[in-house]
From TrEMBL:
This is Unannotated protein. The lineage of its organism: unclassified sequences, metagenomes, ecological metagenomes. It holds the Pfam family Inositol_P. GO terms for biological process: inositol metabolic process; signal transduction. One of its GO terms (molecular function) is inositol monophosphate 1-phosphatase activity.
Length: 279
């Protein structure tokens, strides 16, 4: 056992989560750098990079957890799934490369997600979102303010999927803007911003650059788990769009919707989305 391995055996769950997420992130950066200038990549080369990155990061995370948490179960986007995990008392939910498309474009808005779900407690713990190309790592052990700041000099910024935005998002944001103005919260309305992966979107919120994230077309538990825990730790309110709590370790591991909101506007945002969906 080398010094690094000896030190890793002493880490608690959150410390291990941070370490292996950052290690995977550095492997992804090194791999991408080896492909040269993104401006020179053709479609075949970008596809090769994405596939290799997914596999490399998954293998690193899976090996580290198998060695240092051998009795825990694992759910990974890139790993084989089976229903054995449904009876596990501890389940690691990882997305080795969240934002694979952005990674293959040479962009910075991709992330590594590592989270621990404890089914009996219905509790997320040890959540880490590492954004290696931005030099940012968000975790549930970070020191945070009592409540996130709210902007008074700009519109409320909203992040959503660029490919699958909520159908009623436009009308909902018009309603939300009017509701916030009537409540004396802000007169600046709302604006959409373009960000890639789920982890990168949540980072915009916890960094103070956005206040609301809405996704209604569904995705998987590995997309959601680590950002969900990090968002809550930073004082934001994550839930399904209707306000219901999200739980994990389902078969299949599907999450129908997600909303992450600044606490000041969470009820207004939910009401606006509901009103817009009714037409």
């Amino acid at each position: 056992m080398n010094l690094m391995e000896a030190e890793m055996t002493q880490l608690n769950d959150q410390e291990l989560s941070i370490l292996i997420a950052q290690q995977a992130g550095q492997l992804l950066l090194k791999l991408r750098d080896s492909y040269g200038d993104p401006a020179t990549w053709d479609k075949e080369k970008a596809t090769s990079l994405r596939k290799q990155g997914d596999r490399l990061a998954h293998e690193h995370l899976a090996a580290a957890l198998a060695e240092h948490r051998p009795t825990d179960a694992l759910l990974s986007e890139e790993g084989a799934d089976n229903d054995d995990r449904l009876s596990a008392t501890r389940l690691w939910i990882v997305d080795p490369l969240d934002g694979t498309w952005e990674y293959g474009q040479g962009r910075a808005d991709f992330a590594v997600h590592v989270a621990l779900w404890e089914p009996e407690l219905k509790k997320l713990s040890a959540c880490t979102v590492d954004l290696p190309a931005q030099g940012v790592c968000r975790a549930m052990s970070d020191a945070v303010a009592d409540e996130p700041a709210f902007p008074t000099d700009r519109p409320v910024r909203v992040v959503a999927s660029r490919n699958r935005p909520p159908v009623f998002l436009g009308p909902a944001l018009e309603i939300l803007g009017k509701t916030m103005a009537a409540a004396g919260i802000t007169q600046h309305g709302c604006e959409l911003i373009d960000v890639g992966s789920v982890g990168a979107k949540v980072n915009e919120l916890v960094s103070g650059r956005a206040e609301l994230y809405v996704h209604e077309s569904g995705f998987y538990e590995w997309d959601v788990a680590a950002p969900y825990g990090v968002a809550r730790h930073y004082g934001f309110i994550p839930s399904h769009v209707d306000g219901a709590e999200i739980e994990f370790n389902h078969m299949p591991p599907w999450v129908p919707s997600l909303m992450v909101s600044h606490p000041l506007i969470v009820d207004m945002a939910r009401d606006a989305l509901a009103e817009a969906s009714r037409g």
